[in-house]
Amino acid sequence: MVIPSLKLKSGYDMPVLGLGTWQLTGEQCEKAVRWALEMGYPHIDTSDDYDNEERIGRALKGFDRSKIFITSKVDDSRLHRQDLIDSCRGSLDRLGTEYLDLYLIHRPNPTVAIEESMEGMKELVDRKLIRSVGVSNFSVSGTREAMDAAELPVCVNQIKIHPYHYPSETIQDCRDSGVVVTAYSPLDTGNIVNDDLLTEIGGHYGKSAAQVSLRWLLERGLIVIPKASSRDHLSEDIDVLGWNLSDEDSNRIAESGKRILRG
């Protein structure tokens, strides 16, 4: 199965589907990553504060690194230039790789000038330790500040998105700026899997509520990184390609989300 990609401003391609690994640790994490890679997942997302990079590194052994897109993040407590560079090197060592495809500032830290953090990012790119730069959990204004401060393109903003938490202003502003948006927690940490509306709509296609959620987000031009730890859930999450939601069903999901946001 070929997973489509989106072109980043850096010129590199980023697969639209990946495995999120937040709260996956130890042997469970290693097994899940290896199963995902065996199934054809081309994209693994982690962070230096997930306590799982070493296990992911073990799972990566034996696979063609050039065909795997690896994202990691630097914690907001390590955003001074040298701290950021050292943190990246630590992630590379634990993952057993010579470079990261994407490195993100995990969340903003108002006590560290974004200009200093972006200097560190540029140094990492210049040293070919990372290929693309981005942010995570940044607001519209924060993303624009990062873009203004950087001497290289800010390619991605990773934020929490699912059908009932859809920050349209941030998404649209990123899109207008050429910043690709990655949706983390696209299944609302599992809360969506039994949703009545998504389950009903899934019945039209022989799909689950989780698959409908992921499909809906993909059709909005987002990258999704659902977390899964079992073979069954990994297989289910990757089976979101090759079919489309009808306009009617897509609009029903959007309207339901708006009603929930209005409270």
CATH architecture: Alpha-Beta Barrel
CATH topology: TIM Barrel
What is the SS-derived class? alpha/beta
Q: How many domain modules?
A: 1
State the name of the first-level CATH class.
Alpha Beta
Written as H for each helix and E for each strand, in order along the chain, the element string is EEEHEHEHEHEHEHEHHEHH
- Percent helix: 40-55%
Would you report the number of β strands?
10
Name of the CATH homologous superfamily:
NADP-dependent oxidoreductase domain
Main pleated-sheet profile: 8 strands, parallel
The largest sheet has its strands arranged as 3-4-5-6-7-8-9-10
The fraction of residues assigned to DSSP E strands is 15-25%
Radius of gyration: 18 Å
Oligomeric state, counting identical vs distinct chains: single chain
Provide the low-confidence segments as ranges: none
- The end-to-end span amounts to 40 Å
Shape: globular
Let me know the average pLDDT. Answer: 96
Q: Count helical runs.
A: 10
Describe the structure.
The protein has one domain: NADP-dependent oxidoreductase domain (TIM Barrel), CATH 3.20.20.100. Helix content is 43%, strand content 17%. The chain contains 10 helices and 10 strands. It has helices spanning 26-39, 53-60, 81-95, 114-126, 140-149, 168-176, 196-205, 209-218, 231-238, 247-262, and strands at 5-7, 13-15, 19-20, 43-45, 69-74, 100-105, 130-136, 154-160, 180-184, 223-224. It is globular and about 55 Å long. The protein starts with a strand and ends with a helix.
